[in-house]
Amino acid sequence: MSPEISTRALLHAIANGDPTQDLTLGGLLDQFKTRAYGVFLLMSVLPAFVPLPVGAGAVSGPLVSLIGLQLLAQMEHPWVPAFLSRRPLSRPGMVKFRDRTARLFRWLEKVSRPRTEVIIDHPVARTFTGLLLVLLGFLLALPIPTTNYPFGLILLTYAMALIERDGRLMLLAWALGVAQLVVVGVFSSQIAVLAGEAFTWAGKFFG
């Protein structure tokens, strides 16, 4: 696979590859250089779109935060734990993921291309991207109902911006990430206020 392959072409190649040939995450990342973080993030978000016996966020969230921490540390190439690096990627899972996101990726490919790459490469920009991914990954890992798809779609934008090296798309990803954090923060504050009022009412009722 060429390192210049597009995001949609990458998904298609993985999903339709030789089913007898194991494709590992570590092997896939080794084929990429400046785009490896985007590929890692793309693979990490996959569980959010595939039904799992356990919460998808519990799988994807820590990996997203791990990627964010490595961007914060300005690591040139992502580090993947050995047990994940050697684990074969699920081609059936990739087929489901590709089919569910095909329309989104078709639209994103029409508007994304390598541009304003300073937003991708500058240390300050990488730090901000990493910080947002750490926070989004943490929230994704929490058992908050109906958040997998919203978080997953936002994180796909980050992944595609990194793969396509599109700084303008990354600016959009930043905006979406910050907005999601604000929404969750406000929602959490409202829950805390309501819970406090409920405890106060219960204390008065039973007191």
Task: Tell me what you see in this structure.
There is one protein chain. With 207 residues, the protein is mainly alpha-helical. The chain is built from 10 helices and no strands. Helix 8 runs antiparallel to helix 9 and helix 9 packs antiparallel against helix 10. The longest helix is centred in the C-terminal third of the chain and has 40 residues. It is globular. 36% of the residues are buried. The model has no long low-confidence stretch (mean pLDDT 79).
Helix and strand composition category:
mainly alpha
**Main sheet: strands, sense, barrel:** none
Number of H- or I-type helical stretches: 10
Secondary structure tally: strands: 0
- What Rg is obtained from the alpha carbons, in whole angstroms? 19 Å
What string, H for helix and E for strand, traces the elements in order? HHHHHHHHHH
> Share of helix among residues?
over 70%
Secondary structure layout plus pairing:
Layout: H1 7-15, H2 25-30, H3 36-45, H4 56-72, H5 82-85, H6 91-111, H7 118-121, H8 123-141, H9 148-164, H10 167-206
Helix pairs in contact: 1-6, 3-4, 3-9, 4-8, 8-9, 8-10, 9-10
What's a quick, concise take on this entry?
The protein has 207 residues and is an all-alpha fold. It has helices at 7-15, 25-30, 36-45, 56-72, 82-85, 91-111, 118-121, 123-141, 148-164, 167-206.
